[in-house]
Amino acid sequence: MALASNIVVLTGGVGGAKLASGLLDVAPAERLTFIVNTGDDFWHLGLRICPDLDTTMYTLAGLVEPTQGWGLRDDSTVTLDALQANYGLEPWFKLGDKDLATHLLRGEMLRRGDSLTDISARLSRELGIGARLLPMCDAEMPTIVETDEYGELGFQEYFVKQRWQPAVKSIHNRGAAAAGVSDAVKSALTAADIVLFAPSNPWLSVAPILAVPGMRDLLAALDLPKVAVTPIIGGDAVKGPTAKIMRELGLQVTATTIVEYYHGVINGFVDDVRNDLCQFDGLRATRLDTLMQDQNDKRALAEAILNWIAEWRS
Ligand code: FO1
């Protein structure tokens, strides 16, 4: 049953891409749609950088640099090195030479008036990806992180330049009021049989998707399995700032906090075997091994989630 389902996944970058890759192993590509966070996107050196779209795209195309989980494997930094050597520009955001091809083409298409939705479809098609990659919206909705030390920081300044060390006071998406759910996202959600929330950072990666005006209402109205996968394992995040941000926002670092955060848009939760099972009225929950260290783990988790949902629906 699960194999014949249309699966829509709300996802951010590296953590979400791991589950995406597992899903691609166990479900037909044409049944998979990824709605990807674009709050991390920014203009840099005249280029439009869309890290989470590219991380998902390179992962699904089998081209991602495996150790860091973003960028292209076997890439070089000749261009960035020349910017530093010749013009003294500090290369705080690492853009590989091959990766630049993506940013150049995307920038050119944006300047021609193409939407990010159409551009993402073309880039992923050219890279041989059968699944659908949709930006959360076409408008720019940058994530702004309000910090104790520096006040407001653009997402990549917070995440990469400051190595997510500043203490977070609040997070919002600039320009949200003028954004809207695209027709492509609307029709993907309307045709969905299952919606998954990848184990991405809820506050940095999924919140921007939910902040697109109309998105929450669309999700809340869907009468189908809407399942979040915990990004918290054994009281900590696998990688990145999720646990640190939760503490800074005064939240307990537990899967329960994640479930509460997604209240109203999920009706199912995949907890980790190392956690105490979350129990809430109206919520179906299971415990699986959600730690994805290699491709077998990714495939096994994707399969177990879809099997659990299939049982629940039969
Ligand atoms: N992450 C880093 O930690 N340092 C970088 O220099 C960096 C460059 C980069 C370039 C292209 C790209 O698609 C992603 C890149 N990332 C880098 C990853 C990215 O900043 C984050 O992983 C996401 O935005 C968070 O999901």
Task: Report on this structure.
- It is a single chain.
- This protein is of the alpha/beta class.
- It has one domain (about 1-40, about 115-314): 3-Layer(aba) Sandwich (Rossmann fold), CATH 3.40.50.10680.
- The chain has twelve helices and 14 strands.
- The strands form four sheets. The chain has a seven-stranded parallel sheet with strand order 5-2-1-9-10-13-14, sandwiched between helices.
- Helix 1 (about 15-25) runs parallel beside helix 2 (about 50-60), helix 1 crosses helix 12 (about 295-314) and helix 4 packs across helix 5.
- The N and C termini lie close together (about 10 Å).
- About 40% of the residues are buried.
- Ligand FO1 binds near residues 40, 55 and 94.
Structurally, the number of domains stands at 1
Give me the CATH superfamily. Answer: CofD-like domains
Question: For this entry, what is the oligomeric state of its chains?
Answer: single chain
Which molecules are bound besides the chains?
Answer: ligand FO1
Total of helices: 12
How far is the N terminus from the C terminus?
9 Å
Q: Would you list the SSEs in sequence order as H and E?
A: EHEEEHHHHEEEHEHEHHEEEHHEEH
Low-pLDDT windows of residues: none
The CATH topology comes to: Rossmann fold
- Summing up helix and strand content along with how strands pair, one would put the structural category as alpha/beta
Highest CATH level, the class: Alpha Beta
Strand content: 15-25%
Strand line-up in the sheet with most strands: 5-2-1-9-10-13-14
For the record, the CATH architecture stands as 3-Layer(aba) Sandwich
Radius of gyration: 19 Å
